[in-house]
Specification:
By secondary structure, the protein is of the alpha+beta class. Helices cover 48% and strands 15% of the residues. The two termini are 30 Å apart.
């Protein structure tokens, strides 16, 4: 593997996770997809190697490492099993980051060490039928009654729902419209009045345990309030970090896998008495794929390094997320095309690669939403080199 200016420790992390994912996760990735089974058992060896809760401070049992290390881990997992890479966010994604950044000391001590050990899986629940890109339209209500909150409403597209133990739920706490009236609460899986609904059958990422959530007079203690109304911009700031560590490295890892597989295929496949790889037109397609992947990796690593240096930016996040999403769709689609009929067969990984990355252009903020963010920064004059 190339150096990319990584430190010795970062290269060690990358290479050890690569070997684990290659040996343990890759052989069963197709089965998880076909059977709609979340390969949550794959988190155990990652925890044993100290890679869950990687960013957590040492006081909670973590390694205190940065976004760059997180990106490297997710990228390598995704090369062999995108579903496992997504489930990894149950221990290193938005919810643990939100508890660390915004939770009370009691909440931090109650949850973070267990998350680091891989014993407590978490989910992030924001979306509703009419609240996707328009996050200020959340209708699920949490009403204070004495020492409790009572929650009513429903949520959609909750990744990891079927395997998670603790849910960060966006709720409306006051009658104020938009983000002003919203807050966030923590809900345990076994809370009365809380139901995890049917599995949501999607085009790809079928092994992520995605489901809807239903709250019917669900009563939680007031101590489970994570963030009061009026502070949701702080929570969105946490989500910005997750848009670097979660979605783009999954896309990059899957695109890399598709590229490596199709290179082997065209070198081995004989047509008209010679390897497909001898065709110049096909060679140019491979060159385009290689350029796309390298450009995406450069953007992603730069964005991660800037966050770790204390210089994050909206435009970095949005450019990276949108470009890597679109790159992955292009590369996996081209790999499927070059594989011919094999590209459409479930006996080969190409169609799964495409399916797994296609939805990433919608999740974590659509590509269009991120392009709007980029344009705002450009037109305001805040976008500078």
């Amino acid at each position: 593997m190339k150096d990319y200016g990584l430190t010795e420790e970062q290269r060690l992390i990358r290479d050890s996770v690569h070997d684990l994912a290659h040996d343990k996760f890759g052989p069963h990735a197709a089965t998880a997809d076909k059977q709609y089974q979340a390969p949550v058992h794959n988190l155990k060896p990652l925890a044993e190697m100290g890679y869950t809760g990687l960013f957590m401070p040492e006081q909670y049992g973590g390694a205190g490492l940065g976004v760059m290390e997180n990106v490297l881990v997710v990228e390598q997992i995704a090369r062999y099993c995108a579903n496992t890479a997504i489930l990894y966010s149950c221990t290193d994604g938005a919810t643990p980051r939100a508890i660390l950044a915004l939770g009370s000391e009691a909440q931090k001590h109650a949850y973070l060490p267990a998350i680091v050990r891989g014993e407590l899986l978490t989910a992030w629940s924001m979306s509703e039928a009419n609240a996707g890109s328009d996050v200020g339209n959340v209708q699920t209500r949490a009403v204070r009654e004495g020492d409790d909150f009572v929650i009513n409403g429903s949520k959609l597209w909750c990744t990891g729902a079927q395997v998670s133990d603790l849910f960060l739920v966006w709720v409306r706490l006051t009658n104020d419209t938009g983000m002003k009236g919203m807050g966030a609460v923590l809900v345990h899986r076994d809370t009365p009045g809380f139901t995890i609904g049917k599995h949501l059958d999607l085009l790809g990422l079928r092994g992520t345990g995605m489901a809807e959530l239903v709250f019917e007079n669900c009563r939680i203690p007031a101590s489970n309030l994570l963030l009061e109304a009026g502070r949701m911009r702080e929570l969105l700031g946490v989500l910005d970090a997750d848009r670097i560590t979660g979605n783009p490295p999954v896309c990059l890892g899957v695109a890399q896998a598709a590229f490596e597989n199709i290179v082997r295929h065209v070198k081995d496949r004989q047509q008209f008495g010679k390897p497909l790889a001898d065709n110049q037109g096909l060679q140019w397609k491979l060159a385009d794929m290689a350029m796309d992947i390298e450009a995406a990796r450069a953007l992603l690593y730069r964005a991660a390094q800037r966050v770790d240096e204390g210089n994050p930016s909206i435009v970095d996040t949005s450019i990276t997320k949108a470009f890597v999403n679109q790159m992955a769709v292009r590369v996996t689609n081209e790999a499927m095309q070059l594989a011919g009929a094999c590209g459409l067969s479930e006996d080969y990984p190409y169609e799964r690669y495409f399916r797994d990355v296609r939805g990433m252009s919608i999740g974590y903020g659509t590509v269009e939403i991120h392009k709007s963010s980029i344009a705002r920064e450009v037109l305001s004059g805040r976008y500078t080199h």
